[in-house]
Design a protein that fits this description.
The complex is a heterodimer of chains A (825) and B (689).
Chain A lengths: L9 H5 L21 H5 L7 H6 L1 H4 L5 H21 L4 H4 L13 H10 L6 H13 L4 H9 L5 H10 L3 H10 L5 H6 L1 H10 L2 H17 L1 H15 L4 H5 L2 H10 L14 H4 L8 H27 L25 H18 L4 H16 L15 E5 L6 E2 L8 E9 L19 H6 L8 H10 L12 H18 L21 E3 H14 L11 H7 L2 H10 L9 E10 L4 H19 L11 E5 L2 E4 L5 E3 H8 L3 H9 L5 H24 L9 E4 L4 E3 L24 H6 L6 H19 L1 H11 L13 H7 L7 H17 L1 H14 L3
Antiparallel strand pairs in A: 1-3, 2-3, 3-5, 5-7, 6-7, 8-9, 9-10
Helix pairs in contact in A: 5-11, 8-9, 10-11, 11-14, 13-14, 13-15, 14-15, 15-17, 20-21, 28-34, 30-31, 31-33, 33-36
Chain B lengths: L1 H13 L9 H9 L12 H5 L6 H10 L2 H21 L5 H21 L5 H8 L2 H20 L4 H15 L11 H6 L3 H9 L1 H19 L9 H8 L3 H29 L2 H11 L16 H13 L3 H5 L2 E3 L17 H4 L21 E3 H12 L6 H19 L1 H7 L5 E2 L22 E2 H15 L7 H21 L7 H17 L1 H5 L4 H22 L3 H13 L1 H16 L5 H10 L1 H21 L6 H10 L5 E3 L17 H18 L7 H11 L1
Antiparallel strand pairs in B: 1-2, 3-4
Helix pairs in contact in B: 1-4, 4-6, 5-6, 5-8, 6-9, 8-9, 8-11, 9-12, 11-12, 11-14, 12-14, 12-16, 14-16, 14-19, 16-20, 19-22, 20-23, 22-23, 22-24, 23-26, 24-26, 24-27, 24-28, 26-27, 26-29, 27-31, 28-29
The chains are: A mainly alpha (825), B mainly alpha (689).
Subcellular location (chain B): Membrane
GO cellular component, one term (chain B): cytosol
Protein name (chain B): Armadillo like helical domain containing 3
Chain lengths: 825, 689
């Protein structure tokens, strides 16, 4: 029986929502089946404050979908109830009113699992699912589960995927509305992959939610469009064209999914209560004001002062007035921005040498700068912002054989909301020094007198109050260090300096040996920077401590003085499929939170991945980290010696904490490598950060795929003697700690295996990704969790894995292979 | 009178074939030069006049032929003509505007031609009449301004700029051009900026606009307040400054390209003969060897921008792909610097083109690189005056750049590496490094290379002392920056040291001839102080410990030069003479160099003796140096890391006056209104009106 209780035809989605729906601002999260009368009743007149408060969560209620969702929700459940009533009438009826908890459904779950033995344990979740699958007559349990506090996004996704019952799917589709956005966003790849590749019912269940979120948010829209494109790409071209995914993508990109209703987003009433004390406007406006001011100043200087005679009002005739009053262009700027970044990557790939690539990159980015600031942002960032400038000279081309991935740094201004806050006005590159233009006027061949004269004939030029407003002082301060060095040119901390006072006739003598000594000392003392290598331009850039880089770039930036200035970085990949990377990121993130939840001190660093299409994307770089390859090549030291050089002798606090970090991260990544079968583990793909953590990157070969399928790297993970040396040898305490961590980590992971499996399993659908090659991928993954083993047996397993990896000849072989073929040490 | 006839004869031959037939416009000109008010009999006289095709030659010669007394008689009519010209500029009928612009040109030129000696006031009186002059000029400038900034025809804009260039260069000495006083009051600066900021107008008129600006800035630069100076110094609009830089960049690139073409042409070989055959079809003067005419006007514009506007410095480093697209070979006019720019279609403009052309061979470049290449060409040959001036101006610009903190910062920026192929003079004792693989380095290395190159190639009888001084000072300024900011540049300092030592050697061996003209002690002092910088502050900016040893090695190796220099300066300073003071300064400056030589020489000799080696290897000498530092004491000298900042006045004022004069002459010669033939305009406007 098909219950087509649900949702309005797609054509309805495009039509602007009738304004009455505005008033239903009580969120659907309240609309639990248990309290149908209250939530689904006639639209209540809502007092303004309530409407305002609930806006963040309840903006979703502004769309038809929400309303429909309610109804559908109840219908479905009603049906389920009716069905089950004869079977288990008592259990279905008393469903707890879980309404208040639903806004934060995940946390309670966590607490419950550990602290509340009476609550349904995770085991029961599983069993419920099993029951649902095999015994439809027990669906009352299911209902109870759905209504319980425990029901979180992870479960929702799982049921959406596994349930064959359209009613359940539809119900879950509606329940999505009640989860916090961030939690659903984590599963967006899964949701969309299901939308594309699963049957119509699932698609219909998901669509309202996606459409609704798209209306709300530009970044969500783009995210969806990119993912839909990427995950549709493996379909046959003819089916792809007419597939659901492609259609939805087109709909999103057509930019018709605007916020419903005529409600202006920057309505002060809705905006102001939103921000704590400093209103979002304050941020935006603050960012604007200096440039605005000074811009006016320069205008007034030039016009007022000189064109005494004529009515030429054209000084600042360049049309750079921000037309913020216009209808904001939604998707276009960001798409253009991404497009130009990708275009750069494509063009770089055609150049033969690293050096040419780097140069080209710099000049391409400087052109890009002309179009900034704009309403564009880096999707990998954790906060809202506008991109204002790309410090083009800092960009580097990364090591890659035939593609041209590159790393850029991006200056942004943090803002309340990138969709509504106004875009900062451009501050010219030269602004940072503009005031000096005035100071240096006497240089232009006028004596002081003449200069004075010039001001009388040219009024309002220098002594104008406006001209030296607060903003200018701010600018002066930016320059201060420079002025400072200017004035005391002859101050030097290192050399005895020439003192130009004529009185001190006493000759000063210095020893040549001292100069020579100082020279070698200073050269030795200089922080271990890497040497510039034209073949590896990124090594130097990556070695520089992040804090230092931020400071340096901030100093050189015309926007640097603004309080909300931030520096971000991103790796732009063009020609690479990042879908596997994204999958790996999700798994890592999931394991990380599992380990956090189980309080196992394993350390891993999932880095954000943005899939733009099946062959392009962006990666959030790991800051303060260089690859082991770079470490070894530049330092010419063993890993342990490098640790000693960077952190100090083995007994120091610094070394010990670096060592601990190393062990915790090694344990984390060893497990990851084992579980996900991460291959291609040469030293170029393992980073070492400034605190001693290792970080694995490049998950191009996971699960069923390995490079060239040569069958190298048969060991479970990479554990070289160098690693063991850093841990203090294979019989040391830290090594035992390493093994213990692995055991604990594996036990914890096993406990929550489903949360990991689910991520992978859903993505297997409709894909050609090499990591899913063959039929045994999922089975293999599941087996590696070793559900059947006792803890003692698990310990044995870990010991075996570690021993095996340590003794592995193939690891060494593989490193040698990499050295021969790619020059990676 | 005879001259007029001659001209008239020429005219007739060219314009009208038959003798008695006079053009209508000529008849009307004659009426103006009669006593009567021409409008008296014909109320529509002025209307009709501007519908006629202008006969520039006739009008100009007529004006020139008017002598003193006649002037009084016809002044009213000329004033009237001027007045109506200005009024016609506001006409909707574009033909009238064109004719009025050309007539104005003829008026300015003719009147000045006649009254070369006359005071500016007389000229103003003759053209406009004293009492009305201010109003007339104000009207004129406003009309020109609105034509330049309006949406009108590009040809019209071009003509407006030509008129302004014509007006500005009508006197040899720009500062004596009294009419410009009105151009100062009624500024067209904003119009120039607008042309430069807009992509398409920049492509077509950028060159004229930039030259015009450079000239206007030089009007009574040292005597009065020139608003153009003030305004130029505070421009901070990025697109405008970029635009200005782009125009200069393109002009210099074009020059570099022409030079390269000629160089290849002259290199012989099968391929080059082939190309020269093709090339000679376009280049009229085939035997005009490697002397592409330098372009001081554009260089002056660059100088003014760099010197006056601190914001412009950022433009220098703005990267563009090298615009090395062969310009369409149009008319064979390689000598007029006005043409090359017009041929670059605006579509090539990078500001316009968001995405750079996809050509892997395209080298990335920026204005500074192009400028350095240009300088390397110009500096090769400083024999003729133009080139000498050009080279001097290049060095002055580099001086300004080297003094600027921001410029220094990007010159030394480790992230901005470039391959700069400087042109090197082919010389007997060295092979021309054709494809010497220059590594990609920070830009300052290219500047230093250029300085070294200059030093080693100009030691000649006709010694360019002034250029050498500037050159050494530029190096000094860069070193001061490196010392201050502790930048350890990976540069082969050895090349610089040996170039400097060779320079000292040259000064010594040509002492007598040089002393007749120059104060060689001043240069020697600067050179020795460069060594002192390295000796006393080497720890702050040398890249490796070895480089300090190498410095000592080089000094010890070439000790004879220093010994001889010391003898010479000691001799001169003990004699009484005009050089006494200067020479004694050098003796003091040499104290550390001599200490080093006197300290290490005996050590090296004894090392050789002990080890029974006749000829020590470099490594052995370095070893001796390394092990004997501790017993050497040096004296700290005063003010090594200080320098006099560049200032144009009073030192350089004379140079710039002369330079501007020569540029004026050149521009005047090249601004022929015929470049914009009326036929083209007529064709254009016949469709409009």
């Amino acid at each position: 029986t098909r219950s087509r209780s649900f949702p309005p035809p797609p054509s309805d989605q495009n039509s602007p929502c009738p304004s009455p729906s505005l008033s239903i601002s009580s969120s659907p999260s309240l609309s639990l089946p248990s309290t149908p009368s209250s939530s689904c009743g006639p639209p209540q007149a809502v007092t303004p404050p309530l409407g305002v408060i609930s806006e963040g969560v309840a903006e979703l209620s502004l769309v038809i979908d929400a309303e429909v969702a309610h109804r559908a929700c109840q219908e479905v459940l009603q049906k389920v109830k009716l069905k089950q009533l004869p079977a288990a009438p008592s259990s279905a009826a008393p469903s707890p009113p879980a309404a208040p908890a639903l806004n934060t459904p995940v946390k309670p779950l966590k607490i419950r699992e550990e602290d509340d033995p009476e609550g349904p344990a995770p085991g029961s979740v599983k069993s419920a699912r099993r029951r649902q699958r095999h015994n439809p007559s027990k669906q009352s349990w299911l209902l109870r589960l759905f209504e319980s506090k425990l029901f979180d996004v992870s479960m929702a996704i799982s049921y959406l995927h596994n349930s064959k019952e359209p009613g359940v799917q539809a119900y879950i589709g509606n329940r999505l509305f009640s989860f916090p956005h961030e939690e659903v966003d984590f599963y967006l790849p899964q949701l969309l992959n299901m939308y594309i590749h699963m049957d119509e019912d699932v698609g219909d269940a998901i669509k309202p939610y996606v459409v609704h979120r798209c209306r709300q948010s530009i970044s969500f829209s783009l995210q969806c469009a990119w993912l839909l494109g990427a995950y549709s790409s493996d379909m046959h071209i003819s089916t792809q064209r007419h597939s659901r995914g492609t259609k939805l993508r087109k709909l999103i990109l057509s930019d018709e999914l605007k916020p419903a209703g005529p409600r202006a987003r920057r309505d002060p009433l809705t905006l102001t209560p939103f921000c704590p004390v400093a209103s979002p406007a304050a941020i935006g406006e603050h960012g604007l004001s200096p440039s605005k001011r000074t811009h006016q100043r320069s205008k007034s200087d030039a016009t007022v002062s000189i064109s005494l005679s004529s009515n030429l009002k054209r000084t600042a005739s360049n049309p750079k007035v921000e037309s913020s009053q216009d209808e904001p262009v939604r998707l276009a700027p960001q798409r253009e921005f991404i497009k130009s970044l990708m275009g750069i990557g494509k063009r770089l790939a055609t150049l033969p040498t690293k050096e040419q690539k780097t140069q080209r990159l710099v000049s391409e980015l400087s052109l890009l700068n002309h179009k900034l600031p704009a309403r564009v942002w880096l999707p990998t960032a954790a906060f809202d912002h506008h991109v204002v400038r790309v410090p083009h000279t800092q960009a580097v081309v990364l090591n890659s054989k035939d593609k041209a991935p590159y790393l850029i740094y991006v200056e942004v201004l943090e803002c309340e909301n990138f969709e509504t806050s106004s875009v900062p006005i451009r501050i010219p590159e030269n602004r940072i020094r503009s005031t000096r233009s005035v100071e240096n006027l006497p240089d232009c061949g006028m004596t002081a007198e003449q200069r004075a004269g010039s001001f009388s004939t040219v009024p309002n030029y220098d002594n104008d109050d406006e001209a030296w407003s607060v903003d200018d002082i701010g600018e002066l301060q930016v320059e201060l260090p420079e002025i400072h060095t200017n004035s005391c040119d002859n101050i030097s901390q290192f050399s005895v300096d020439s003192i130009t006072s004529l009185e001190s006739k006493e000759p000063i003598f210095i020893a040549a040996g001292d100069i020579r000594r100082r020279l070698s000392e200073q050269l030795a003392q200089a922080p271990t920077t890497f040497k510039r290598d034209p073949e590896d331009p990124s090594a130097v850039a990556l070695k520089e401590p992040w804090e230092e880089k931020v400071r340096r770039i901030r100093e050189g930036s015309p926007y640097g003085h603004l309080p909300y200035w931030r520096l971000l970085s991103v790796i732009v990949k063009c020609g690479d499929d990042l879908r596997q990377e994204l999958l790996a990121f999700q798994v890592l993130q999931q394991l990380k939170s599992i380990w956090e939840q189980e309080r196992v001190p394993l350390w891993i660093k999932p880095y954000k991945i943005l899939v733009l299409s099946s062959d392009s994307g962006m990666i959030e770089p790991v800051v303060n980290a260089v690859s082991l390859h770079q470490v070894k090549k530049q330092s010419q030291l063993s890993l342990l010696d490098y640790f000693l050089q960077e952190h100090g002798t083995p007994t120091t606090e610094a070394f010990l904490s670096a060592q601990r970090n190393f062990v915790q991260s090694c344990a984390g990544y060893s497990l990851i490598c084992y579980l996900l079968q991460v291959k291609d583990r040469h030293n170029g793909n393992i980073l070492l950060d400034a605190e001693g953590h290792i970080i694995h990157i490049d998950f191009g070969f996971i699960l069923s795929s390995s490079p060239k399928n040569l069958g190298f790297e048969t060991s479970a993970f990479k554990l070289t003697t160098e690693f063991v040396d850093v841990m203090g040898g294979s019989d040391g305490d830290m090594f035992n700690y390493y093994k213990m961590l692995m055991l604990q980590g594996l036990i914890a992971a096993r406990k929550h295996m489903d949360r990991v499996l689910q991520i992978v399993e859903i993505m297997q659908q409709g894909t050609q990704l090499p990591c899913f090659h063959g039929s045994s991928t999922m089975r293999g993954l599941k087996e590696r969790f070793h559900m059947s083993l006792t803890e003692e047996q698990l310990q044995l397993l870990v010991d075996q894995l570690v021993d095996g990896s340590m003794r592995s000849l193939t690891t060494k072989l593989y490193d040698g292979f990499q050295y021969l073929t790619n020059g990676i040490m | 009178m005879s001259q007029v006839e001659k001209k008239a004869g020429l005219l007739r031959r060219t314009s009208s074939s038959k003798k008695p037939l006079k053009e209508k416009v000529v008849l009307m000109y004659d009426e103006i030069f009669a006593k009567e008010d021409p409008a008296k009999n014909n109320a529509r006289f002025w209307d009709e006049l501007f519908l006629m095709k202008v006969n520039l030659e006739y009008l100009e010669s007529k004006l020139e032929s008017v002598d003193g007394e006649e002037v009084q008689r016809i002044q009213d009519n000329i004033n009237s003509l001027f007045h109506h010209c200005v009024q016609a500029l506001g006409e909707e009928h574009q033909i009238k505007v064109v004719n009025a612009l050309q007539t104005l040109c003829a008026l300015f030129r003719g009147v000045h031609q006649k009254n070369k000696s006359a005071s500016g006031f007389d000229i103003i009186n003759m053209l406009m009449g004293f009492d009305k002059a201010e109003q007339r000029m104000k009207d004129l400038m406003e009309r020109l301004d609105s034509l330049l900034c309006g949406d009108g025809s590009e040809s019209l804009k071009s003509l407006c700029l030509k008129l302004l260039l014509c007006l500005v260069t009508v006197t040899d000495n720009i500062s004596q051009n009294t009419i410009l006083e009105y151009v100062m009051i009624n500024s067209i600066f904003e119009a120039i900026l607008q042309i430069l900021s807009d992509v398409s107008s920049r492509g077509q008129h950028g060159y004229d606009a930039v030259v015009l600006l450079a000239l206007l800035v030089n009007y009574r630069k040292y005597e009065s307040v020139n608003p153009y100076i003030v305004k130029l110094s505070i421009v901070d609009d990025e697109p405008t400054l970029d635009g200005m830089g782009m125009v200069v960049h393109q002009a210099l690139t074009e020059y570099n390209r022409q030079y390269k073409d000629k160089e290849e042409e002259n290199q012989g070989g099968f391929f080059s003969t082939l190309t020269s055959m093709v090339g000679s079809m376009f280049i009229a003067d085939a035997d005009e060897k490697l002397s592409v005419q330098t372009n001081e006007a554009i260089l002056l514009a660059l100088y003014e921008a760099v010197h006056l506007n601190r914001n412009f410095i950022t433009v220098l480093a703005q990267s563009h792909p090298e615009i090395d697209i062969p310009t369409t070979p149009t008319t064979p006019t390689p000598t007029t610097p006005t043409t090359p720019l017009g041929t670059t279609p605006p579509s090539l403009d990078m500001m316009n083109n968001p995405e750079l052309p996809l050509d892997p061979n395209l080298q990335t470049s920026n204005l500074l690189i192009t400028f350095l290449k240009y300088a390397s060409i110009v500096m090769q040959d400083t024999k003729d005056e133009h080139r000498l001036n050009s080279a001097r101006l290049c060095l002055i610009i580099l001086t300004c750049i080297a003094e600027d903190q921001y410029a220094d910062a990007f010159l030394h920026d480790d992230n901005m590496n470039f391959r700069v192929n400087l042109h090197r003079m082919p010389m007997r004792h060295r092979k021309k490094a054709v494809d010497k693989n220059i590594p990609s380095r920070p830009l300052v290395c290219a500047v230093l290379d250029l300085m070294v190159e200059f030093i080693v190639t100009h030691m000649m009888k006709d010694f360019p002392m002034d250029l050498y001084l500037r050159c050494v000072q530029i190096i000094h300024k860069l070193l001061c920056y490196q010392k201050k900011c502790r930048i350890r540049l990976h540069y082969t300092w050895r090349e610089l040291w040996s170039a400097l030592i060779n320079l000292l050697k040259f000064l010594l061996s040509n002492e007598t001839t040089l002393l007749a003209k120059h104060n060689i002690f001043h240069l020697a002092l600067l050179v020795v102080n460069l060594f002192n910088m390295f000796i006393t502050y080497g720890d702050t900016f040398l890249p490796t410990s070895n480089s300090y040893d190498e410095l000592y090695y080089e000094i010890v190796r070439m000790h004879q030069v220093f010994d001889n220099l010391y003898c010479m300066v000691l001799r001169v300073s003990t004699n009484t003479g005009q050089w006494k003071e200067a020479a004694s300064k050098v003796t003091h400056a040499l104290v550390n160099v001599r200490a080093i030589i006197n300290h290490f020489n005996p050590k090296i000799e004894s090392y050789a003796a002990v080890n029974h080696i006749s000829q020590l290897s470099e490594e052995q000498v370095l070893e001796v140096v390394r092990s004997n530092y501790d017993t050497l004491t040096l004296k700290l000298q005063d003010g090594l890391d200080q320098f006099e900042r560049y200032s144009e006045q009073p030192k350089e004022a004379a140079f710039f006056k002369e330079l501007v004069r020569s540029i004026s002459l050149n521009v005047r010669k090249n601004v022929s209104l015929n470049t914009l033939s009326q036929d083209v305009l007529l064709k254009e406007f016949s469709t409009i009106s």
